[in-house]
């Protein structure tokens, strides 16, 4: 069911008053605020909580907070039924009538997925635009299929920057026609970032246990950074993109956005792997995924013996004079104390070209790849009001009030429509990005024998995106105005095990995340 979004946002004071209450379940208290997957599973095992009760609690949280935050686009009308099925399966396992095999970490746990990830149910998949409202997808996206197989409850669809921000250069982060402007739960005027703003806001504000987002360039790392949560941007091809509204087959990747590294790893374990429907990208997944999955790398001594490269220029420039820089220096000392070797003041060759999408060729490639990819996606829909980028442009022009055309326009769509497929200009752009990556990031990693690079904030995202490299961002602190910032760890393709070890040890050593102000003043115990 679509979540109603009011025109006038309720005041922060009113929401805080609404949050001041305590409830109990069967006489036992269970706190959903900051509850981890492990906390939830313990409550299930102890009989203090059922999946159905947990879904009810999160839906209540959404109904109270989402009118302000706009992080959730739709709540799954079948979520309660899915939760009840999970409860029956758990009860059967407890009674010995079925095996516990398959009842893993995510069994019965509510998950929010970005609205551009297809679900074959009563919810829409529209990339935030009215142009796709009422379209019908042929099947669940592969990542959703795998979440369901793991027993997760699909709680709903999270908002996003419309069409990932590819429609117009004027669309602000976190805005889409169907939901309006998403709001950062820490600083109301703060940037929620995009395009996976909804998944990040939803878990940050404890409207869901865990979430799944997508990234082409910065769309997991930046929202996670700005909303004080953990984001894992997997190696391109580690997770399937089948059934997800596309931008680029070279850069698109699907990954977890959660409150903790361990929760993100549980989600990654559930969704990673080869998919025949995305063969070309995922055929290498098997060689990257370690036997036994990723949770074995949640080690409290994961930093010991790691070689970490610090790239300051240009990633610290935007933080000059802020408290984030001093916090970053303190965190580097923590990394050293935990046994890591820090190689500081490293420089990446051609970094200014790499970070400029017009000089690197990224803009040329993405605009062409989007036109080709979206046409293929739309043609595979069972029904759809639009079947090509030209149709979307026409819809927007014919419905200016719905899509706020006068305010935001569709300049990038218009440029994309003028492209003519994957021609020589695109191939040259792709080759340039490959060379820039080899001579830049890969050379830096190899010559310094690094396990990962460490940067303040999300600024390294483009460098990692154009080469298909993985990254993890972890909450690292807050500016004087309360705006969050994170630390990003990036590595070569397939190095998720090392990145998880590093990120988990850092998280456990710093415990930097704190709940948003809208929750901090309310006890919110259940």
Automatic annotation (TrEMBL):
Residues 1-27 form the signal peptide. It holds the Pfam family Amidase. InterPro entries: Amidase_dom, AS_sf. Transmembrane segments: none annotated. Residues 54-499 form the Amidase domain. Keywords: Signal. This is Amidase domain-containing protein. It comes from Ficus carica (Common fig).
